[in-house]
Amino acid sequence: MGAGRCLLLYGLTGERRSARAASQVILRHAGTISHQHGVGLDHREFLTAEKGPLGMQVLRAACRALDPDGLMNPGKLLEPAE
Length: 82
What we know:
This protein has three helices and no strands. It starts with 14 loop residues before the first helix and ends in a 16-residue tail after the last helix.
């Protein structure tokens, strides 16, 4: 299929529901919620669904190894409690 993109404009009524529905469809079809700018706060809630438990374990381990003090964009990629 190639790379597909979906642009959702925020600020419209129901925008969050639309974004959530679009993200769920993307994940159901083995697409990715990330893009050239990363996951971002808008898609963070879908990260675990895309990466799975092992992927999240690897991501947390990489973050701990590369940023042990948690200084680089805290709370942007992983939930603060993670």
